[in-house]
Amino acid sequence: MPEGGPQPRTYRAGFVMEYTIGHVTFTKMLQRVVERDPSVRAEWFLIEPGHEVWPATMFPFSANYSLSVSASAARLVGLAARFDVLFMHTQTLSLFLGPVMGRVPSVISVDGTPINIDEAYPLHHKQGRQVEGVKRRLVGSSFRRATYTMPWSRWCARSLVDDYRVAPRRAPIVRPGTDVEKWEVGPRRDGGPLRVLFVGGEFARKGGPDLLAALAVLEADWECDIVTKSEVPGSERVRVHRDLDQDDPRLAALFGAADVFVLPTAGDAMPLAIIEAMAAGLAVVSTRIAAVPEVVDDGATGILINPGDVAALAEALKRLAASPQLRREMGAAGRRRACELFDEKVNGPRVLELVKTAADEGAVRR
Fold first, then answer.
1. In CATH, 11-177+344-365 is 3.40.50.2000
2. Is the pLDDT of residue 81 over 50?
3. What are residue 18's phi and psi, to 5 degrees?
4. CA angle, 358 as apex, 353 and 362 as ends, to 5°?
5. What share of the chain in percent tops pLDDT 70?
């Protein structure tokens, strides 16, 4: 660029992130991507459980996680004028940011809309009709007020357009990513017991009891590693790890030592642990729920069953236990799919491009 010519723009971006369960993984990915982009000057607001502004005894709706945590986010970004653009993950944090979004360009990252969640989480607790109605109106208003929404999947994009009347051009799909180089491992072994890996913070919701029930009737030699935050009893063949996070090298070692990754989830949006397992070259067994079928190519990179079908889960494990060749083929196909669709070095910059586009549109309007 000639000396004295126009200089690249620097974007002052506020990242307001729901920082719990799988959202932590997405936040850390985005932080790595931002660190590699000198044009983005970021300030991070990490909203964790316990940041609620009001105790549940003060207002009837304050016991609602979405409403209360969103109020915390609104308080943290009160000085919104310092930003060129706001990025929010998820819409849970946007409910009380309408006035801010009216002044500052914004992007809302969405792994699943509330209507998606009601569909995909059979045990999802809903409060009274009045509270749920208020929340739905607030969410719809936030989606439409945002400069862009950013659904992670076609499943989520359809709900944004059909249920919340978001214009399709304002809802481009941008998938999450993972560090595919971090998860790459060498050839898988043929002999020994089938080594099963489960990674899910909420053991029951992620289908852990179904996995244990299927293993109990599996007519093959097996052992299982369970990574969870829940209280789960271990045994001679079931090793429970409750102290591992995504950056722990012991977790990467478990992915490297496993033969198959199993997540028979009963309620989910797009589990990032499945993407990591595919990047590690593992055959995946999971459920036909939410956006999981957009991640796992059933029959090619893994096997999908219906939620709660323990017999089908046991049969899938039996097939994989009997055929190291099938495990290798599915794992290799999964690795290729992860590199093609979920590489953070590709998808991360796409997130930032959308953030910058929103900021540029806002600058033109001003």
1. yes
2. yes
3. -70, 120
4. 145
5. 86
